[in-house]
Amino acid sequence: MFATGLDWAAWAVAVPLVGALLAGLLPRLGPVLGLVFSLLTALAVAGAVMAVWHEGPVRAGLGGWDVPLGIALSLDGLAALMLAMTAVVGLAVSIYALGYLHSSQTRGKFWTLWLWLWASMNALFLSGDVFNIYVTLELVGLAAVALTALSGGAAALGAAMRYLLVSLLGSLAYLMGVALLYGGYGVLDLAALGAAMEPDKVSRLAAVLMTVGLLMKTALFPLHVWLPPAHGSAPAPVSAVLSALVVKASFYLILRLWLDVFPALTVPGFELFMGALGAGALLWGSVLALRAARLKQVVAYSTVAQLGYLFLVFPLMAVTPGAWQAVVFFALAHACAKATVFLAAGSLQQAAGHDRLAQLGAVMRKEPVTVFAFGIAGASLVGLPLTGGFIAKWLLVDAALQGHAWGWASLVLAGGLLAGGYVFRVLGHAFGRGPVDPDHRPVPAVMVWSTLVLALVSVALGFAGAASLELLALHGGQT
Amino acid sequence: MDLSSHFQILTSQLIPLYLIGGAALFALGLYALVVRRHLVLKVLALNVMGSGVFMVLLALAARGGAQPDAVPHALVLTGIVVAVSATAFALALILRVKAVTGRAYLPERNGDDPA
To answer: Is A91 on the interface with B (CB under 8 A)?
Structure first.
């Protein structure tokens, strides 16, 4: 039988899937269906999160078929927080898209694909076995690529094609790892694999294949080259979802695997290697964000940089075992801030008709609320006080200092300075003196306010650190 | 010995061959994916890699002897469904790329170019 928490969780997958089907059948009703089903999905997710909060983690076999024969669904604090992150960002993006896609012909397709992507991500967070994860990973990848190609221009199509090839290659590497794991242990369930894991050659090869496959999809430096064109040329709501959520989904899997399945396989130097890649991402992504000429490119390279922080989880966990919770909170703070920044960038781009940074000042002076939202979210990316980003960096530095890892602590702070550089590089244009853009197209109110509300969520996160960590402490799960 | 036990011995001896063959297909596909520039060839290369994974799974299913393990078979079937949909989508995307740019190749890009 399903526990109540898993009932809610199953709805969180089923509701957006039904919405996607209906939006595909009735494209004219897309916006209405999109809004209704986004609200219902967020409701189901809220139910699931509350259930975990009150009743603790749960696991169950789908349809009453238990492991090893059935497919396990598993809902714990980490999965619940990921579902919540997706729901908050997803709801804001859905409302924003009502205004953004108003004049576009791509509207009907957008709602089908976006609700499909949402359902796939929720299923991914809830999957309890490695093969089911493969299927959800492919669903997420295909939906994300289709959304990237939505605008249909040459740049978007080329970026989508590159993204698709990388994504399929990553999935196949992951699948080969799954095959090797099944060959070694005869089970696919995460918990069963974790309990049986032996540090032999086949397991190590499987771990390497799965991790590298997922790293490609997460776009960790130096495998990031596909990300900036894809995230930079997609429509703004899509960019927000890709940068805030989709790359986090594959990071979540890396974290899940190394927390629950592979910890027996770590070799000395592994965490240092991953941390070095993270540091490379942080520095290289920031440098390119400081040099990019277009606003959406700045934001996309900022994602490359901020993804580097996520991989500090490996060196930090080596010195402070609980450090992964700080990293997950960072992912949450980054998701809200990055989605806001992309939405704001989309509003400015639509108002100006372009996103060339040097000529955006005139439009930014006309859109104070959007620029304000950009500023708040930017402050969260930098890690200024009163934002979720501040708490996230505080937790990261705290974890590093507890383990006397001074180097990693200073890297976190240096990354904040670099982020300050590219955020203020953009904001600076709003404060210059100059004419107001005469050809300025007004931004629909629904876009302005949904962006601002999401920016305020970044501030609210500054006060939700303790609650999030308490939720994350509910790890694992009993049948 | 009857025929079926002969067959069993033969299959069990072939398993390493299938495993090596699967790994070789995976590597060949990866090589072609990197080296070939036409998008259809790249998609075919991914399909060859997929067949490599399926072959490894089938070899693993045969290890049990007379009673093949059904789980890897189910995985391969699901994998084929995923591969077919992904290939169909990739081919449709290639057609769009060709229609818009006139070429079925990835756009030229020299690494990171923020401009």
So the answer is: no
Kindly give the interhelix angle for A30-55 and A4-25, rounded to the nearest 10 degrees.
170
Contact B75 A172 (CB under 8 A): no
* Min Cα–Cα distance to chain A from B70, Å: 10
Is residue A316 a contact partner of residue A323, using CB atoms and an 8 Å limit? yes
- Residues of B within 8 A of A297 (CB-CB) are 114
Whether B115 is in a domain gets the answer no
* Contacting A residues, span 135-164, partner chain B, CB-CB under 8 Å: 135, 138, 142, 145-146, 149, 152-155, 157-158, 160-162, 164
User: What's the total number of domains in chain B?
Assistant: 1
Count of CA atoms in the C-beta half-sphere (13 A) of B27: 6
CATH of the domain at B53: 1.10.287.3510
| Structure token pair of residue A81 | 């927080």
C-alpha distances out from residue B74 to A179, A189, B12, B54, B61, Å? 12, 15, 21, 11, 10
Q: Closest by alpha carbon to A121, among A138, A106, A108, A107? A: A138
The Cα–Cα gap between B71 and A394 comes to: 46
Task: Give the residue among A256, A260, A396 at the shortest CA–CA distance from A322.
Answer: A396
Element (DSSP H or E) covering residue A73: strand A72-75
Q: What ipTM describes this predicted complex?
A: 0.92
Domain containing B67 equals 12-101
Question: How far is it, in rounded angstroms, from Cα A385 to Cα A390?
Answer: 5
Taking only the tens place, the pLDDT of each residue in A430-469 is: 887 777 767 778 889 999 999 999 999 999 999 988 888 8
Helix (H, G, I), strand (E, B) or coil at B66: coil
User: Residue B102's closest chain A neighbor by CA?
Assistant: A154
* Cβ within 8 Å of residue A55, ≥6 positions away: A3, A4, A5
Number of H helices, E strands in chain A: 21, 2
- Distance (Å, whole) CA B113 – CA A291: 9
Between chains, do A149 and B107 touch, taking CB under 8 Å as contact? no
Rounded-to-integer distance, Cα A90 and Cα A238, Å:
10
- The three-class DSSP label of residue A67 is coil
Nearest C-alpha of chain A: how many angstroms from B55? 10
Interface with chain B: mutation pick from A130, A157, A357, highest number of B CBs within 10 Å: A157
| This prediction's pTM | 0.94
pLDDT in tens, A25-57: 988 888 899 999 999 999 999 999 999 998 888
Please report whether residue B23 resides in a domain.
yes
**Domain-located, residue B84:** yes
